[in-house]
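Need a sequence for this fold. Nothing fancy.
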């Protein structure tokens, strides 16, 4: 076999023949400097609907992107037919760097990460106060995923006409998480919708929650122009809801300048196999300086953790350390525990 040296002549390089006769193949890909910018609104069986200059354009991923997938919220570059007309198809040639990523795994033993939403500013965690009962472990997992991915959390409690929120709010009081309490009557009158919208203005907000908590009902009230999904019901025997949203979808909140709502499918579990405790601590600025004395790869819940001394010296509230450790420990516990 002939081996080429450092100084090869052009004639020494053999090009692969192309049976179509339209020139030799090459691995050099075009840079597409003139590609249009767009935002992925939804993904359905390999077809991505993107917003390009105010038009909904259906596109597919270019082959040169390999296995890199685009998700709802991604900023992308597109070429091809960008008219948005029926039966037209554009091509996504570049996925821009993401500012934030909401990720989950199927369970805590699954190493495969699933990106739910990209470039969201906020994660609205929707939970019912009754029917079905709140699941604090699942909420804790969503909070950890938000802190890890760079999203600000927002708690949205529904069905306050069935149960009071006081006891539930005590569990998250030390985390200083913004929250909104809603009831069925307030949703119908529009009062609750107005309060929720105040937290969404100018932001991209992803909504998550397990089935039956009223997440899609709330999204439909926030964006009444889009009622493509019907709301489900809660099974009287199991207390579980029926999935009504099958794919993530980004919806403009009264115009793209006013913010975006991303409705996601209802979840029954939220795996955290991908979570690094060193990233979660960033959400606790009062505790983070105390980790400088921690041993390497400290889990922040072991005898040598420096946070105990940091709190004992009065630098932070002990309740804050308890909250941090409760969130980190949720990876070892199932949501229903």
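Here you go.
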């Amino acid at each position: 076999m002939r081996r080429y040296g450092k100084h090869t002549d052009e004639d020494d390089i053999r090009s692969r023949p192309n049976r179509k006769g339209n020139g030799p193949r090459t691995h050099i890909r075009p840079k597409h400097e003139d590609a249009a910018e767009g935002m992925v609104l939804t993904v359905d069986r390999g077809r991505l609907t993107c917003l390009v200059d105010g038009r909904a354009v259906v596109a597919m991923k270019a082959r040169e992107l390999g296995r890199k997938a685009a998700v709802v919220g991604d900023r992308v570059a597109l070429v091809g037919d960008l008219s948005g007309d029926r039966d037209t198809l554009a091509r996504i040639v570049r996925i821009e760097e993401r500012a934030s990523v909401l990720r989950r795994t199927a369970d805590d033993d699954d190493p495969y990460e699933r990106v739910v939403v990209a470039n969201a500013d906020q994660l609205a965690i929707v939970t019912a106060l009754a029917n079905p009962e709140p699941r604090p472990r699942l909420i804790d997992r969503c909070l950890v995923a938000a802190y890890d991915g760079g999203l600000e959390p927002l708690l949205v409690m529904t069905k306050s006409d069935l149960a009071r929120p006081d006891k539930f709010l005590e569990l998250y009081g030390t985390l200083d998480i913004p929250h909104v309490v809603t009831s069925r009557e307030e949703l119908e009158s529009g009062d609750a919708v107005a309060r929720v919208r105040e937290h969404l203005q100018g932001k991209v907000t992803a909504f998550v929650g397990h089935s039956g908590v009223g997440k899609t009902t709330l999204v439909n009230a926030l964006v009444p122009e889009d009622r493509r999904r019907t709301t489900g019901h809660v099974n009287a025997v199991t207390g579980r809801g029926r999935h009504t949203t099958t794919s993530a979808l980004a919806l403009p909140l009264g115009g793209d300048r006013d913010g975006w709502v991303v409705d996601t499918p209802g979840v029954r579990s939220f795996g955290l196999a991908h979570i690094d405790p060193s990233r979660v601590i960033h959400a606790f600025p009062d505790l983070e300086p105390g980790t400088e004395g921690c041993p390497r790869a400290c889990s922040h819940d072991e005898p040598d953790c420096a946070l105990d001394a940091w709190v004992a010296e009065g630098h932070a509230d002990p309740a804050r350390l308890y909250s941090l450790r409760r969130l980190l420990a949720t990876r070892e516990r199932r949501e229903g525990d």
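For context: Residues 284 and 324 are 8 Å apart (CA to CA).
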